[in-house]
């Protein structure tokens, strides 16, 4: 693939900047791996450098894909960029720039994880499992979400032989040896993601600044839920809930915009103020926020969304006591009346409020909702009853407890709790719902394979409709 050719040149510089002994590359198009990849430090730097790339794939692109493609009137886009409007209108083309960017970031990250795994033998034995597990976590995560966006949806109970995305499981520093694989089936990509994350769960420890075994279990629960493997989803979610030592915040708003990991955070992508120009959470806060300090006020939230919440639901309260003299720290509700120089009025979502806060990715609340749905659909009560889990989420939201639970109630609580966190499109597809008049498997809800990839690899086929 074309992007890999440039990556092989750039990667040699970016990953190992600061190591003088390896900066003189001759020729530039290849790397002497015996020289570069013989130290544990360089392998560890490769892994550390992969996390911001994966973070940016979500913060700049994939979270937007899920929420905007699934939009059915919840957003009023007030900005000038064409990409969000194209996503909302389901009007994409095969050279859609954000789609190209996400593809490049994902395969850049995958190649780096392959480097770590291919050269893990240089690591100290005491570090090998942890570092290998983190690489497998990131690779499995990337393949899972790439196949969810760039392929027709997985449908439970049938063979999923539709084209997925290319599987690349080994690193390559030599341009002359670049592979041009075809698209693996959706089944095969899911199998690879499960294999990577299952192995990551066994290799990773419980405590890490980056991914740990509970994060791997949480992503496995997402995969099983997407596949309709409900009992397995409940098992993995229950493991996180009962063994992870996490807890819900006292009120919903406190679960977001944390500069360090909060006790509800199963996993976040780390970020600080140095990342606030065109990166990660800036990709979220730039569009979602409308304050004195951050945001373009582009993603205005309409009453189509806010009217979904019952009276008294803390997750749906709109803070209206903000004005031109307010500051970002004055925002205390998940929805708020926009202010600041860019504001055009209207309501905004405070889940993505500030550039310098971590990119929220897996929260304990999701695990309760997954366990509830998994147990309900499987007819099991692993860890708790579905009613108990739903009431736990409702109690935190300030709502009265309910006496019985249905499939509709469980799904609705998930929609309300996880709004604008990157779940909307994926849940619509697995529940076989619709986006307006579009069926869950409509081709316009699938991202195009980048044209430039197809131009250099005749084994790739384009998605329907492009």
TrEMBL record:
Residues in SusD-like N-terminal domain copies: 26-225
CC per GO annotation: cell outer membrane
Record-linked Pfam families: SusD-like_3 (PF14322), SusD_RagB (PF07980)
Keywords assigned: Cell outer membrane, Membrane, Signal
Gene3D superfamilies: 1.25.40.390
Subcellular location per the Swiss-Prot or TrEMBL entry: Cell outer membrane
Domain RagB/SusD, first and last residues per copy: 357-437
Family named by the database record: Belongs to the SusD family.
Protein name: RagB/SusD family nutrient uptake outer membrane protein
